[in-house]
Amino acid sequence: MDELVERVDDQDRVLGVVVSRRQAIREGWLHRVAVTVCRDECGRILVHRRSEQLSRFPGFYEVVVGGAVDIGESYEKAAARELAEELGTRVLPRLLFTFINRSGLSPHWLGVHEAVVPDAVVPDPDEVAWHAWLTEPELRSALLEWCFTPDSHEAFSRYLAFRTAQS
Asked: What is the gyration radius of the CA atoms in the chain, in angstroms?
C-alpha cells in the first residue's frame, strides 16, 4: 500500500488534503519528506545503498535516511520514525532547516535533520542493501563517483552550507 501524505503549499502550510505519495509525485504536488544526516561519535557520516526492491531509486546511494512525513506528523517525529524503521536506532534527530527540493521525482518540502547515532546500526534489509561510515573527504569523493539519489546531492550540499554558516 502506498503511503498517505498531506499536501502543503509553497509556504509549507498543510492544505487539509490527503493523497497517496505516488499521486503527489505523479501530479507534482508539494508534500513533506524528512531526512537525517547521521554522524557517529567520530564525526563520520553514514552512507547507504538503497535496496534493489525499493520503488524509488533502487540501488542508488544515499547520504540521508528518511521518508515521507505521515498525516499529522512533524518533521522531527517522521525523521525519528524513519531512523527506527531503516536503521533500528532510536535517537532524536535535530531539525536544521527545510526547503523546497525540486530535484528528484517531484517537488517536495525537505526537512533536513542531523543526529549522532551508534555506529553499530542494524539496517532493515528491505530498505538498506549496504552501509558504511565515511569521513567528509571520503564522502565528497564518493559523491563524484557513485550514483547517489538527487535528494542526497541537494540535501548534503545545503547541509554543508548550513554547518559552515553556523561556524
From this structure: 15
